[in-house]
């Protein structure tokens, strides 16, 4: 960014005999270019603000980035997203920032296949088709399944309506939304136990719990309901060319709108004065003046390292101390010369050794997960690898604390994964062309997320809604986006957070008002 006339005419004085970097100014600085931060940056830039986004990695996207190994291109962590249909969340965002049509989203149907001992079921998209598939599999529970899905729909509708409220009073109006109020402290299991008698039906209906990192007995029903229907009601989509293309599109909008995205650049400190945010010091020593900062970084690191905990009210610090980071994962990126038909029949398959999700979750906490998901991105996008080869992404959740030294135990996990896939496809090991593992330590290295957390704070009832930090921090001028703030983890959640943060920073009371500012 060029220096202003005043800055060129009055260069900063030297301090302790060492010249200090020239000071520049931006309207807003975004720290971290995960999808939440990029969403905010793109909207602010399109609104005419001079935006600087800084990213310590060599590419944007956070968990939505991709990487290449030889001829193979892999998504790091994202498998599917909802809200890409016309009028959906992602569609509204891309249209609002003038980027409609730049990303190609392919519909995935069914959105998953679930395998349990002696049983398998696919989850088709479309609310009626989904309900019918489960009613056919569990006819004695058909009425309860319909009631459960109807309640999920009510939760989602009320959540969307609540988010349209003026941000300054939205959380105070929860009593106006009967389903949100009734189930605000409920787990998924609490609601299912009321409505569905069949234990196996309950387990099958909650196949996607790994997408939000907690088993049904601990998982917020409010968050689950919106997540499930973002796929079932709206459709599940894969981004052609990997989800990196979605992240790159948001970054392109920032640049095209006069903003800047700097890679391999970290924020060292957010300077606060008596009025609030005053500047950001980068790792180079450069100081950028601004009165608005959006942090997409780990919230505790934002508070303790970038700002300083003493700048936050004691009550706010205590509320953060009560929050628990979500679980992490082990991910294997695999290429094989076996045809996809020998491996899986859906874009993503969840293979459970038990009908008891608590038992499966405990195995992840113990560091020896008994279940996994297997994604086949090359089935949707053959250009990700050479013709005649299949790309697989094996994922299982695991606790960072379950292993003392992840580097030393990496080979043990690799062997365990290959053995699991051998049981699935005899002879699989002899057809591996490439395999690479990511562990919780890998997640920490690339994102700096506490404990390699996949979803920011966990998504239990006490950690969503008012229990999760708002996009507006107590420090004037400091805003938050990403999975450490409301509403929560996943692409859908962090895009929502980025839009909420942009609304707060621009003073837009509703989403409609936001898009009018950009028109």
Would you kindly provide a written description of the structure presented here, covering whatever features stand out?
The protein has 519 residues and is an alpha/beta fold. Among the domains are: 5-65 and 240-323 and 468-518, FAD/NAD(P)-binding domain (3-Layer(bba) Sandwich); 123-234, Guanine Nucleotide Dissociation Inhibitor, domain 1 (Orthogonal Bundle), CATH 1.10.405. It contains 18 helices and 20 strands. The strands form five sheets. Strands 8-7-16-17-18-15-19 form a seven-stranded mixed sheet. α4 packs antiparallel against α5 (142-163) and α7 packs across α9. The two termini are 26 Å apart. Mean pLDDT is 93; it is low at 1-20.
Brief overview:
Helices cover 36% and strands 18% of the residues. With 519 residues, it is α/β, with parallel strands linked by helices.
Low-pLDDT sequence parts: 1-20
The appropriate CATH architecture of the domain at 5-65 and 240-323 and 468-518 is 3-Layer(bba) Sandwich
CATH topology of the domain at 5-65 and 240-323 and 468-518: FAD/NAD(P)-binding domain
Q: What's the β-strand tally?
A: 20
Task: Provide the CATH superfamily of the domain at 5-65 and 240-323 and 468-518.
Answer: FAD/NAD(P)-binding domain
Choose one word for the global shape.
Answer: globular
Rg from C-alpha positions?
23 Å
Report the average pLDDT across residues.
93
**Beginning-to-end CA distance, first to last residue:** 26 Å
CATH class of the domain at 5-65 and 240-323 and 468-518: Alpha Beta
Helical residue percent band: 25-40%
Instruction: Give a short account of the largest sheet.
Output: 7 strands, mixed
* Strand residue content: 15-25%
Count of helix runs: 18
Strand order in the sheet with the most strands: 8-7-16-17-18-15-19
